[in-house]
């Protein structure tokens, strides 16, 4: 597939327009309910599926199947992101009305980082064919490790990125609305929301290390790899607000995701010199694994309702008081409360 430059520009422009629409729709901080999250999820899925239909119609069934296989893999692996975000937001006691701002900026960063990873992966595969073996081995190891550690969860307090941020970046201990930075007595300080954003970005980079090699197992077309990633990522925020309170019911999903990684790792190994598994078969196998893991999870946990994720202990941050908000200002405006030199 030789995607022309104008097509890349058109897709990037469409992504930016959709991000702008999302930003304008959520410019005021508010708690996103299940109904709103469901409608936005349907919108983003419709965009992703609609784009895949266009690829299928314009470039044929094989490339269309490659896109959908990559989209399904990325979308399913994104559920693991949702679980981690729920842990991060709960641990830091991020007010629900401010979570969308963090996720919006996190997704924006994810698009940039994943674009860089995809470009680097494409160059490596084109220049060194043996890299395929490294990718395949990494996917097999990651899948096996995910099965072994399926009951282990992220501990935000032990995050090296968080420790470094707290050590080197001066910050307040209270949330100041949706601000990432505030000015207090003439000094610019980070808010806890910026620390949360940094941790969200770091975890997404870690997830990208798994998901990018996985999608290269079903398609080697950089355009399809990027677009499948982009449309899967764009719906992550809505997916979080829709599924965050149901994560406890997906008891077998992690095993399903691990089997997907192992399957695409095996496919990548066979693809080199042994046998090319048709994309339609890969799409069917991935769909079957995910469907079985989700249905089995729902059956085992039937009767359980929505339940917010809970973390033990006191949250490390709090919400700023009215007096604190009054004595702080945005860093983008000149503060009237500026520290003056002595003497």
TrEMBL record:
Subcellular localization: Membrane
Keyword entries, A-Z: Membrane, Transmembrane, Transmembrane helix
Q: Which GO terms describe its cellular component?
A: membrane
Membrane topology classification: Multi-pass membrane protein
Q: Which stretches are transmembrane?
A: 6-25, 37-57, 77-94, 101-119, 125-144, 187-217, 223-243, 250-270, 276-301
Q: Which NCBIfam families match?
A: R_switched_Alx
The entry's family comment says:
Belongs to the TerC family.
Question: What is the official name of this protein in its record?
Answer: TerC family protein
- Taxonomic path: Bacteria, Bacillati, Actinomycetota, Actinomycetes, Propionibacteriales
């Amino acid at each position: 597939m030789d995607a022309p430059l104008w097509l890349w520009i058109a897709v990037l422009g469409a992504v930016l327009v959709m991000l702008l629409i999302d930003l304008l729709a959520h410019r005021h901080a508010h708690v996103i309910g299940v109904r709103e999250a469901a409608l936005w999820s349907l919108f983003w899925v419709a965009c992703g599926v609609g784009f895949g239909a266009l690829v299928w119609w314009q470039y044929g069934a094989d490339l269309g199947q490659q896109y959908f296989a990559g989209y399904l893999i990325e979308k399913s692996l994104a559920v693991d992101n949702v679980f981690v975000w729920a842990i991060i937001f709960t641990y830091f006691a991020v007010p629900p009305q401010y979570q969308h701002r963090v996720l919006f900026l996190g997704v924006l960063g994810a698009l940039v980082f994943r674009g860089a990873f995809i470009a680097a992966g494409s160059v490596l595969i084109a220049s060194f064919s043996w890299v395929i073996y490294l990718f395949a081995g990494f996917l097999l190891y990651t899948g096996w490790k995910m099965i072994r550690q399926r009951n282990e969860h992220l501990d935000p307090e032990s995050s090296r990125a968080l420790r470094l941020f707290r050590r080197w970046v001066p910050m307040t201990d209270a949330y100041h609305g949706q601000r990432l930075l505030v000015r207090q007595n003439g000094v610019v300080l980070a808010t806890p929301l910026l620390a949360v954003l940094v941790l969200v970005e770091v975890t997404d980079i870690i997830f990208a290390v798994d998901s990018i090699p996985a999608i290269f197992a079903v398609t080697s077309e950089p355009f399809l790899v990027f677009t499948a990633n982009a449309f899967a990522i764009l719906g992550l925020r809505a997916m979080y607000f829709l599924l965050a309170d149901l994560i406890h019911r997906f008891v077998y999903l992690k095993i399903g995701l691990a089997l997907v990684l192992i399957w695409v790792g095996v496919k990548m190994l066979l693809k080199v010199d042994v046998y090319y598994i048709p994309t339609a078969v890969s799409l069917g196998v991935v769909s079957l694994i995910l469907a079985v893991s989700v249905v089995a999870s729902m059956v085992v946990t039937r009767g359980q309702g929505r339940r917010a994720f809970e973390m033990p202990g006191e949250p490390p941050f709090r919400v700023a008081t009215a007096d604190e908000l009054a004595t702080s200002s945005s860093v983008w405006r000149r503060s009237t409360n500026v520290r003056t030199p002595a003497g």
